[in-house]
Amino acid sequence: MLKSVTGLKDLLKDPAILRTQAYIAGEWVDADDGATFSVSNPARGDTIAEVADVTRIETALAIDAAYIAQKDWSKWTGKERAAVLRKWFDLMVENADDLATILTAEQGKPHAEARGEILYGASFVEWFAEEAKRTYGETIPGHQRDKRITVIKQPIGVAASITPWNFPNAMITRKVGPALAAGCAFVARPAAETPLSALALGELAERAGIPKGVLSIIPSSRSSDIGKEFCENPKVRKLTFTGSTEVGRILLKQAADQVMKCSMELGGNAPFIVFDDANLDAAVEGALISKYRNNGQTCVCANRIYVQAGVYDAFAAKLKDAVEAMPVGDGLSDGVQLGPLINEEAVAKVEEHVEDAIAKGGTVISGGKRHDLGGTFFQPTIVTGATREMAFAQEETFGPLAPLFNFDTVEEVIDLANDTIFGLAAYFYARDLSRVTQVQEALEYGMVGVNTGLISTEVAPFGGVKQSGLGREGSHHGMDEFMEMKYICTSV
Ligand SMILES: NC(=O)C1=CN([C@@H]2O[C@H](COP(=O)(O)OP(=O)(O)OC[C@H]3O[C@@H](n4cnc5c(N)ncnc54)[C@H](OP(=O)(O)O)[C@@H]3O)[C@@H](O)[C@H]2O)C=CC1
Ligand SMILES: O=C(O)[C@H](O)CS(=O)(=O)O
């Protein structure tokens, strides 16, 4: 049954989890000037909340509080921090349905997929609660008889994040989890489109016992201002960003003045390669999840699908059948697999790429137009006859458009796949061991899926090379982003 999101609180088992004020220094506050900005539901376009619109002034107060609180938080043992983080994880799981409803209401993805994100996001807090106990150092044999060498790892201090709307829960927990585990304090600024998921995490953090000031959540429509405060405030020692490469460049330039430690999860242009010895049914299944997860609005989505000539027609036919079986609708309706796109600009980008492909000789074999549901709904689309001259060969579509490129040889497709400034994720389906080994080593990407279209997990290092980013999130490597290494040389 379609549920109206206008009364979002009425859809929640625990309405208190829905927060619309800023969470600063452990207090829930309005913006100093009382300003708010509207949060809308992408499926219906109606406003679901008015949220405090914080400025640099309140952001600086949150940073000050973090700077003070971090001194004591860093003195907790890793085990003590782990206990609080574990409690936060437990609360996320207990409240997963409500967190998913809030996420679907503001971002649009189907509720089942939103719940999957909640559990994925929570898994980072669970993982880093465990890593908190393992921030090991090392001893090194002295270089002189009277020297003793040790290396220790210490929290970097105050960290700040700027995160996108496409994963409004997991992109925050993937950063806050390791930061708090390492003993840092954290100030998070979520995307203006999706602040409610972040604020709900703040509510649960308070319930879990994370000390006042250790975590602040800064909702704001003024993304550029908040970003400048993060980059220019000397009390901030770490900036972690997920979003477009374009904005990542801006932030890196701003952070350079303070030589601030940055991690960047940026744009992608993932190739998805199907060789003629692939299991075609498995390849279609992988293409569906890689291309159409979150309606194609993920940085690791297949952006270009390369199919070897001998299996091109069979793969295209199978993919068409599978795509046309996916129900499109309001994410709060049961059984929906594809929700709306986040906004009108996102729809325009998909339309632009479809029109460009047709103009350059491509053929739409499925979808290609706005959905009859109206608004920002778009038909899941497949284009055949794709060529490297078409816009989506170099630009990230960030929507439900699958371009199928034809290729003949391994050497040809590796060159095509690597012909991009991006290097986040790549995927390929093949069964010949020699071919698998050759291709996985030749692809210039930070992450490679072999016979799978879904690689995201908290246990592995997520991140890109080239202009897809700096650093890694998740896995034990994720802790290093929030710690400094100290070399101690003692003369005895
Ligand atoms: N590598 C990854 O994991 C991801 C990459 N992306 C990439 O981002 C693009 C689409 O996502 P989108 O959210 O629009 O990306 P943007 O880079 O436009 O926005 C990401 C975040 O940065 C904020 N922001 C925008 N401009 C500035 C600025 N000058 N200073 C500080 N903060 C700023 C946004 O705020 P606000 O929206 O409120 O203006 C948002 O919170 C795609 O290219 C996609 O590939 C997106 C998500 C994940
Ligand atoms: O921002 C994104 O697109 C996410 O990093 C994708 S994932 O972590 O859910 O794969």
TrEMBL record:
The keyword Protein biosynthesis does not apply. Belongs to the aldehyde dehydrogenase family. Residues 28-488 form the Aldehyde dehydrogenase domain. Its EC number is 1.2.1.16. It holds the Pfam family Aldedh. This is Succinate-semialdehyde dehydrogenase. The keyword Transmembrane helix does not apply. InterPro entries: Ald_DH/histidinol_DH, Ald_DH_C, Ald_DH_CS_CYS, Ald_DH_CS_GLU, Ald_DH_N, Aldehyde_DH_dom, Aldehyde_DH_Superfamily, Succ_semiAld_DH. One of its GO terms (cellular component) is cytosol. The active site is at E265. CDD domains: ALDH_F5_SSADH_GabD. PROSITE patterns: ALDEHYDE_DEHYDR_CYS, ALDEHYDE_DEHYDR_GLU. GO terms for biological process: gamma-aminobutyric acid catabolic process. Keywords: Oxidoreductase. SUPFAM superfamilies: ALDH-like. One of its GO terms (molecular function) is succinate-semialdehyde dehydrogenase (NAD+) activity.
